[in-house]
Amino acid sequence: MSTPLLEARDLSVSYGRLEPVLRHVSLALRPGEILGLVGMNGAGKTTLMRALSGGLKARSGEVLFQSASIQGRTTATLARAGLVILPEGHRVIRPLTVDENLELSTMSLGRGRVRARLNATRELVYGLFPILRERRHQLAGLLSGGEQQMLSLARAIVQDPKVLLLDEPSLGLAPMVIDRIYESLGSLRDKGISMLIVEQNSQRVAKTCDRLIVLREGVIAAEGSPDMLAGDRLQAAYFG
Ligand code: ATP
């Protein structure tokens, strides 16, 4: 089996001196894979995403990106190395145009790579989301909620990720827009980007992901293929 791109080993995380929110979590994201992470409110999904991307320190255990510990590395340095997190909510800069939003995200790559990267990836994201090409000179703040979510995703893509961590990409969006977003996530996987997707909407992520993990009260309650974890088995893992 191929070496994981991102791995949590026996990871426990707490906020301050409180009881750990995550306890002994181990998971592996393999190249070219979409892993769905589901669970109830407060199960620890966002905490896990933050710990996987350098935003929270492990209390014990470790996180490895491309086989190296992420300890001591910031979210920004990890993003430059190809581990990009897209937190919940629309991460766009409202007073800038669509084009300018993309350009600014590419800046984080460092000077030499910016121009070449921008031209290549702009075509990629405008191919994925033609509506953004149509709106490229419009201010991001004037886009609809769905278009802003597409632009958030586009801003993550232009950073040239190997791994994308997405927190609730379907939150608050209409079913048609959710389908559009998930279609694009499938295309990104085909282009070699691996993803971990956190969702409340377990049915939707199950349709697209290769494997599902159910988190309950900070521990992994179940893990398997979406087929294996369908219906009652998913419910049982969710609610205990
Ligand atoms: P949701 O779906 O509601 O976003 P979640 O599964 O992402 O939930 P987390 O946001 O990771 O869950 O929260 C897990 C637990 O950690 C909850 O009990 C929450 O109250 C607690 N928690 C989250 N952030 C903090 C914080 N900054 N300080 C203290 N406790 C926190």
UniProtKB/TrEMBL annotation:
Molecular function terms, GO-annotated: ATP binding
Alphabetized UniProt keyword annotations: Amino-acid transport, ATP-binding, Nucleotide-binding, Transport
CDD domains documented for this protein: ABC_TM1139_LivF_branched
Record-linked Gene3D superfamilies: P-loop containing nucleotide triphosphate hydrolases
InterPro entries the UniProt entry points to: AAA+_ATPase, ABC_transporter-like_ATP-bd, ABC_transporter-like_CS, BCAA_Transport_ATP-bd_LivF, P-loop_NTPase
Domain ABC transporter residues, every copy: 6-240
Record-stated family: Belongs to the ABC transporter superfamily.
Name of the featured protein: ABC transporter ATP-binding protein
Source organism per UniProt: Phytohabitans maris
Lineage: Bacteria, Bacillati, Actinomycetota, Actinomycetes, Micromonosporales
